[in-house]
Amino acid sequence: MVPANVPVTVDVVEVGPRDGLQNEARTLDVETRVTLIDRLARGGARRIEAVSFVRPDRVPQMAHAEQVLDALPPLPGVDLIGLVLNRRGAERAARTRCAELNMVVPVTDTFAVRNQGAPTAALLEQAAGVVDAARASGQRVSVTLAVAFGCPFEGAVAPEQVAPVVDAVVALGVDELAFADTVGVGVPPQVDALASLMPADVAPPRLRFHFHNTRNTGYANAWAATRLDLSRHGDRVALDASVGGFGGCPFAPAATGNIATEDLLHLLRRAGVAVTGADPNDLGALADAASWLSQRLGSPVQALLGRAGDFPPRERR
């Protein structure tokens, strides 16, 4: 647990334009996706996972990644992230305005094959290629370890199963490593157990978590991440969140989505936690964006702040 006198900073990563859309039944056109990213940036988001460089026949919601990026207006101070699943995707992303590439490596072979067509060991080899491609183009690179908290096919995932994958990723020299609760089965003790896998004998990458609220534990897990001893990580942790709580995993049917950006920011602001990457004082703009997106997706907002209102009530900008 973090000592009381150590200030923790949370870097909020907005994943709504990517993870928030990829599992929705309705596919948004390029113009609507551009408007969403622009609205989020104007609402204070400073790290936005904007696109995914994947096969459009597999994930039609993420088609036209390059067109979306090209159509965006200048976004001063905003870092755009492109998700990739292999070296081929990284080579596409390296030619764009993305400041960062995020490679996904599931920690179980069954999920890895279902999601990306190759076992974990093969995807670690792909991750090495992704790092090379990112470095060659001057981009930062992160790796997200999918199903680190539990797998829909193999069940419970022990930290001992995740540990060798962590070691392999850290050896690649990535800037950030994320543990993902891909199907929303995690609980707070797992947050501490996974964070403790980071090796003590090397300079560790920054630490990041990706939580889903499928079983109503996402925000408890997020809070647990802020209570970790982060002194070896610059007293910072990154947390993924999606505007409106949209998103989900195709392997978790009927599940709710990601933790919602506006609900997370309310929690952090009221608890006195320093935040970067988003503006915790302009939650009305995010609630408005969530409502706007809900209408275009034909899907209900999962976040609660827009329904209940901010507290204390704050003047709109």
Any overview of this molecule?
There is one protein chain. The protein has 317 residues and is an alpha/beta fold. It has one domain (9-308): TIM Barrel, CATH 3.20.20. Helix content is 35%, strand content 16%. The chain has helices spanning 30-42, 65-71, 87-93, 109-116, 120-136, 159-171, 188-195, 218-226, 261-270, 283-297, 305-308; strands at residues 9-14, 47-53, 79-84, 100-106, 140-146, 176-180, 206-210, 236-241, 274-276. Helix 1 packs across helix 2 (65-71), helix 3 (87-93) runs parallel beside helix 5 and helix 7 packs across helix 8 (218-226). The relative contact order is 0.16.
Keywords:
single chain, 317 residues, TIM Barrel, globular
Largest sheet: 9 strands, parallel
Could you say what the CATH topology is called?
TIM Barrel
Tally of strands: 9
Order of helices and strands: EHEHEHEHHEHEHEHEHEHH
- CATH level 1 name: Alpha Beta
CATH architecture designation? Alpha-Beta Barrel
Query: What is the spatial order of strands in the main beta sheet?
Result: 2-3-4-5-6-7-8-1-9
For CATH, the homologous superfamily is named as Aldolase class I
Average of pLDDT: 94
Coarse structural class: alpha/beta
Query: What is the molecular shape?
Result: globular
Distance between the termini: 37 Å
Beta-strand content: 15-25%
Task: Output the number of helix runs.
Answer: 11
Radius of gyration: 18 Å
Q: How helix-rich are the residues, as a percent range? A: 25-40%
Instruction: List segments where confidence is low: pLDDT < 50 over at least 5 consecutive residues.
Output: none
Number of domains as seen in the coordinates: 1
